[in-house]
């Protein structure tokens, strides 16, 4: 574990302590020298329309609450939050063109110094190279939810280098990647549910294809026969014939690789109608199906297992510490806990950004350098909202805390079942 970072004679122990510590002095815009009461903008880049809007709104609320708690200040810097929407009403989900436009807008906003996001890995793959080539940067992006491995490590051809055209990393994340998540799901289904024959489906997007591939690879190692790995057409009005083909494969297991935004409601209805409930064909989906009130309210969704590449809210609450205190504060302010565990991971990502700002001179390049040089960034356990110390590897941008939760949908809610050990390097 890297050491706590030091500014002058003050050792900074986490984002809650940042408001009281000093930073380098200076003045100017967000791309100039820092300090002296300068205002810096950090943004969020999330889908605020469609099925993901509830999770995204909870994430924005949690981040603003956290900034309120620290007085909207880091050292001598005043911090403002600017939300961006990377979705469209027509699509009801993240949109390629909107992500591209957002990336340009981030670079053009001279007061903006870092981005918290994105929620969808495909959107990040569009935005990261643009931010990396910022003439005043590279500009930092820290994600709470991107789990596709290729953003930080070898996965598909050309990854991850093609996202960093300048040769310098500018992207980090605080969540476990899909190579671990898919493997954990396969291990759980083999070792706990004892399934033998599994059909895999995916939404034909970056995230869904990646997690489905990881599941299928590990499932074969666990002795599960993979009968097919088939994409579903997100524009289809129903999936009756799609699931009739799967039914003919005589499966006792279905793995859904993708996001609920991609017509997941209809998909779940037709799976139930053709293959039966979760007792007839054990069904599991990744964290692309977590945090959706509409999903857990579906009668056909009851009994479906979910994996989450982090710690579920119930586990964070149970372990006590900074995470439990923050959930209590959120509940007191908004009347209920966050609808998605990603809300706390959004705050953790902001803690990384704030720690980088505290180490910097207030410029984009200096903030990015703070993450990807020296010891990188560490948020200690006593202040991290995840209830444990996290460290960002300055070589890759990946986090050292690898957690995996297994949940089950019951009583129209996500219910934490157990943690699952993460294996691999």
Describe the structure.
The chain is α/β, with parallel strands linked by helices. 35% of the residues lie in helices and 20% in strands. It has 13 helices and 19 strands. The protein has helices spanning 15-18, 53-69, 96-108, 121-132, 178-191, 206-221, 240-247, 264-275, 293-296, 313-319, 321-334, 342-359, 364-371, and strands spanning 6-7, 10-11, 39-46, 73-74, 77-85, 87-88, 93-94, 112-117, 140-143, 171-173, 197-202, 225-231, 253-257, 282-285, 305-308, 377-379, 390-392, 405-410, 413-419. The strands form 5 sheets. The chain has a 7-stranded mixed sheet with strand order 12-11-13-14-15-18-19. A 6-stranded mixed sheet has the order 4-5-3-8-9-10, sandwiched between helices. The longest helix is centred in the last third of the chain and has 18 residues, at 342-359.
Per CATH, the architecture of the largest domain is: 3-Layer(aba) Sandwich
Shape: globular
DSSP E strands, number: 19
Integer count of domains:
2
- Cα radius of gyration in angstroms: 21 Å
**At the fourth CATH level, what is the homologous superfamily of the largest domain?**
Response regulator
Report the sheet with the most strands, covering strand number, pairing sense and barrel closure. Answer: 7 strands, mixed
Q: Please give the alpha-carbon distance between the first and last residues.
A: 16 Å
Runs in which pLDDT lies below 50 for 5 or more consecutive residues are 1-35
CATH topology value of the largest domain:
Rossmann fold
């Amino acid at each position: 574990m890297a050491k706590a970072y030091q500014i002058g004679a003050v050792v900074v122990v986490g984002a809650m302590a940042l408001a009281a510590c000093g930073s380098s002095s200076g003045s100017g815009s967000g791309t100039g020298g820092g300090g002296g009461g300068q205002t810096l903008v950090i943004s969020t880049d999330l889908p605020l329309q469609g099925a993901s809007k509830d999770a995204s709104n909870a994430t924005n609320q949690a981040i603003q609450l956290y900034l309120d708690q620290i007085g909207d200040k880091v050292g001598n810097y005043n911090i403002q939050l600017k939300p961006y929407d990377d979705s469209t009403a027509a699509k009801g989900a993240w949109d390629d063109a909107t992500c591209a436009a957002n990336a340009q807008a981030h670079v053009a906003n001279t007061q903006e110094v870092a981005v918290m996001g994105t929620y969808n890995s495909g959107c990040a793959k569009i935005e990261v190279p643009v931010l990396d080539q910022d003439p005043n940067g590279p500009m930092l992006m820290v994600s709470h939810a991107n789990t596709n491995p290729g953003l930080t490590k070898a996965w598909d051809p050309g990854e991850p280098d093609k996202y960093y055209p300048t040769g310098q990393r500018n992207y980090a994340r605080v969540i476990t990647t899909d190579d671990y998540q898919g493997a954990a799901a396969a291990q759980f289904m083999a070792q706990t549910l004892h399934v033998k024959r599994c059909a895999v489906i995916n939404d034909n997007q970056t995230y869904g294809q990646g997690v489905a591939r990881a599941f299928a690879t590990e499932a074969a190692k666990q002795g599960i026969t993979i009968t097919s790995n088939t994409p579903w057409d997100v524009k289809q009005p129903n999936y009756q014939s799609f699931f009739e083909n799967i039914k003919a494969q005589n499966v006792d297991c279905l793995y859904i690789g993708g996001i609920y935004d991609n017509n997941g409601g209809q998909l779940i209805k037709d799976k139930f109608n053709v293959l039966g409930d979760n007792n007839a064909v054990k069904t599991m989906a990744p964290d692309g199906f977590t945090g959706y009130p509409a999903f857990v309210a579906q009668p056909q969704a009851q009994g479906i297992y979910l994996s989450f590449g982090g710690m579920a809210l119930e586990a964070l609450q149970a372990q006590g510490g900074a995470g439990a205190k923050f959930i209590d504060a959120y509940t007191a302010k908004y009347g209920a806990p966050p609808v998605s565990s990603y809300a706390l991971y959004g705050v953790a990502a902001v803690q990384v950004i704030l720690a980088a700002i505290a180490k910097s001179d207030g410029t984009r390049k200096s903030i990015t350098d703070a993450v990807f040089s020296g010891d990188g960034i560490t948020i200690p356990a006593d202040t991290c909202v995840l209830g444990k110390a996290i460290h960002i590897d300055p070589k890759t941008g990946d986090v050292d805390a690898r957690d995996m939760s297994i949940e089950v949908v019951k009583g129209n809610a996500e219910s934490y079942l157990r943690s699952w050990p993460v294996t691999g390097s």
